[in-house]
Amino acid sequence: MTTLAVAAAGGHDPGAVEQLLTRVRTTVLRYSRSRLGGSPGAEQAAEDAAQEVCVNVLDVLPRYRYADGPFEALVYTLASRRVADQQRTMYRAPTPVAEVPDSVEIDPTPEEAAVASEDARLARDLLAQLPSAHRELLTLRIAVGMSSEEVARALRMTPGAVRVAQHRALQKLRALTEREGAAS
Fold first, then answer.
1. pTM score, two decimals?
2. Of 57, 78, 102, 162, which one is least surrounded by beta carbons within 10 A?
3. Residues 11 and 70 in one domain
4. Cβ burial, residue 136 (10 Å; 0-12/13-18/19+)
5. How many structural domains compose the chain?
6. Same domain as 42, residue 86
7. 70: domain range?
């Protein structure tokens, strides 16, 4: 932006004003993009900053005197202030996001599914070797998550008898697991 171009624009030469604003807009847009980065809404904020700086330049151009400092310094000052305003606005403004679901469903990877399937098969095989009373008790306590009192009511036992039977069932299951592990 030469002194001559600025003087011609300040003298209300429409062609010089258009040329000057094109150069100012290009420079400010490049500056704004580099300062605002790649954050959401940065491109629009850079466009807005460039537009507002051009409006400000049009406003101060008739009063501009080179003795007050280089024109580029004026443009830079206007641009840096506008970019700072845009940054504050961007960081304060809430960023709309898609509605967040109440729960997240995460599908297992093929490897996880295979391991889970193998583990489930092994557990079913081991449980099948237990007496039906132990199998039922462990299913209610562990798989269903019932308390010993709830299992006692369901199986018509006392809570103490449920805990003792669970202990014995787990011991048998542990022994079967160790035997299965030794056989593999």
1. 0.47
2. 102
3. yes
4. middle
5. 2
6. yes
7. 3-92
Task: Tell whether the model's pLDDT for residue 112 goes beyond 70.
Answer: yes
Tell me what percent of the chain is helix, strand and coil, each rounded to the nearest 5. 75, 0, 25
CA 126 to chain centre: 43
Give the C-alpha distances (Å, rounded to integers) separating 69 from 8, 51, 58, 76, 135: 17, 23, 17, 12, 90
Residue 155, both tokens: 């199986």
Q: Is residue 36 a part of any domain in this protein?
A: yes
Relative orientation angle of helices 71-92 and 14-36, to the nearest 10 degrees: 40
pLDDT of 51: 93
**Do 131 and 62 share a structural domain?**
no
What's the full length of the chain, in residues?
184
Tokens of 11: 């003298």
